[in-house]
Amino acid sequence: MDSPSQSNPGSSNVRPIEVDEILANLQADPGLRTRMTDYSPNIRDEIRRAYLQNGPCQPRSYKFPQTNQSGINRRFIVQWFDEYDWLEYSIAKDAAFCLHCYLFKLNFDQVGGDAFTGVGFNN
């Protein structure tokens, strides 16, 4: 016998198996995430809800690397997580991101482009 999601995929009270798989495998590191606009509009709210429930990616015990910018060694400061609860950090890209921008920004031609959503900010 077919499962309900296979026998009646259009049913409003049944979730497709693919949605459960996507939700189970959401990328925590903001630098490696799929863009919100690349998800089907039908499941974006569920994905947003899951990210909000998980909270921002804030690797507090990570040893943030130093980079030399204009002769000054700089690094991400973990206390910024306490000051800005929306702030995220990508270990993969060594850059800061905005959780709320990732979840809700749809027009990347606006000011800031994808600095806090796809590329990251590290200056």
Automatic annotation (TrEMBL):
PANTHER family: OS05G0311600 PROTEIN, PTHR45749. The lineage of its organism: Eukaryota, Viridiplantae, Streptophyta, Embryophyta, Tracheophyta. This is TTF-type domain-containing protein. It comes from the Eukaryota.
